[in-house]
Amino acid sequence: MAGYIASFSVLLITLVFGLAYYSDIMHLAHQDKLIVEILLVFLAVALLFRTVATIINFSRFLAQRRESGEKGESFQTAARRVLRTKEVTFLIATALYVALFPKIGFFVSSFIYVLVANYLLGIRGKLKLFAIPAGLVLFAYLLFGSVFNIKLPSGILF
Amino acid sequence: MELFNYSAMMDGLSIILMPQVLLSIFFGLVLGVTFGAMPGIKGSTAIAIMLPFVYYFDPIVSIMFLSSVFTGSNYGGGILAILMGMPGNSGAIATVFDGYEMTKNGRQNEALGIGLLSSAAGALVGWLFVLFAIQSIGKVVLKFGPGEMLMLTLFAISIIGLLKGEISKALFMGVIGLLLGTVGASAYGVPRGTFGNILLVEGLPLAPVTIGTLAISMIIVLVGQDSIVHSDSEKQNKFSDITKGLLYPLRDKLNVLISGIIGVIIGLLPAAGSSIAATLSYGFAQTHSKNRKNFGNGEPSGVVCAESANSSCEGGSMATMMAFGIPGSGVTAMIMAAFMIAGYIPGPYMVRENMDVAYAVVWGNIISAVLIIAVGLVFIRYFCKVIYIPTQILATVITVLAVIGAYGVRYLYLDVLVLYIFALFAYLLRMADYPVLPLVLGFILGGLADAQFARTVALYSDRYHILLDRPLFVVLLVFNILIFASPVFRWIIKRLKQPKAI
User: Fold this and answer.
1) Considering only Cβ atoms within 10 Å of each terminal Cβ, which end of chain A, N or C, has fewer?
2) Domain for residue B502, yes or no?
3) Does some domain include residue B22?
4) What is the DSSP string of B374-429?
5) Does A40 contact B179 at a Cβ distance shorter than 8 Å?
6) What is the pLDDT of residue B272?
């Protein structure tokens, strides 16, 4: 079920992207939009084909489930199960890190991110939990910050 | 025009055998491999950082140092592709096809050994070719116009159809990738698909898109597992496994040679790039291999052809830069800048007046192709241990390095957002069982196809028949028609072979 949710999401995202791209180029001169228009036609054909194929596969999957008599996983159960996985925990932690590092500073946010994400992902032991982020931040500071002079966001902290 | 200049060749050799030059080659390789194997840090970044080096050292020392960084980072990109499924540079994308599959099957040491010797052998083939042909290669290269380049790019795109998995899904992903590759200013400078965001005029940034799609999305999958290697596979942990891998390319000599020649020829063409070289040679090796069905499932020959072509391409692109003053990529443009800072102007003038320097660079790279075996061997002996690190720790560390890599190139927060958005989308694709490699391949080649398409249209608008007077174009066009129609041919042959139902 989770696979089908992902499949339909991919098709929907692609449709939105295709329509948005088309609306962005429709007023351009012929020479500027020619290759994009050709590719959009290919995309429309491929999208149609994949949508039909996914719907057929999904109905077969539902029919098989009905025939075998097994109740299987409902949409809500599948969604709930996926949301509790380590993958989603990591995605949420990374999203917060990406959103916050320009504001609170790269080095501090990286330290907190590695520490908290590792803990949530099941890493235990003080040495592992603290030494890894500390070592990584020190390495990043020395190599990228000092040697290569890459200006990473300092934010309100460091 | 004589085939090669013997006295300049010998003068070049004597220049390169100076101890300080040899030392610079060694340090360049060490630095290049280290940078190339770091997630998110590309070889071009390393060269850009090291460019001021040219002001302080002897010209040939600094040029060879930068050139070795280039060689080392090319190889380092392959290490990352094999161990973590993330190409360190666009040329290493074809290495992922089989290299990462070998790692997942616990054969990472063997794959690293194969990658190392294939890379060194490919570079050797490429530079030896350049050594003997640098004076006369121009005649062929100059025959490649935009039409021929477009055909060549289409040829590389056709590899999408050969990749593992359901063909309709691969093509779907390939088209999305190609479309993403067209985002940014058109060949006439008009913004397209930028949705009013001026920061996207240069197009979607290559590194964040590639790392997000291939690396971070794979990392998200891995956090749910305990190890990169499949739980039912035995992990190789002996040094002898690396040496076993080193011996494989010696048995697959023809593959190394053909891929090396494909690589150097593609490298000679300005703007063709190592991604085209590696994918073309992969397609060629796959169609001509006895183990065709194993390609994409951890076939050692897949790693051999990808790494050989990727490395030999460097020789070709450097030869075009030195002989014509045309830099085919960002990296060669930076090395060209180093030549100019050092007082040498690449192009016909250099070939006429400073041929000894050009030969010195060629000899230096031949030496560096041999030396990389020693440097690489020491490096991979320790780097292969990465598969024993818990994936959860690996995930957070790589994400931080990837964020630095994405942000550090242009200092744009947008690039970090692109990294995350593509990681999320690619994770969704993996969940839905869509292959992500065609998307990246399409994205890398989409920009090239767009540029060549626009040039062809501008040059031959309303008189496309002129293209048919160009023999090279016609040959490439026929090849393209054959390769794109090959699934139909295969289907017809299969139907004809099937016994008819009575």
Assistant:
1) C
2) no
3) yes
4) HHHHHHHHHHGGGGGS-HHHHHHHHHHHHHHHHHHHH--HHHHHHHHHHHHHHHHH
5) yes
6) 67
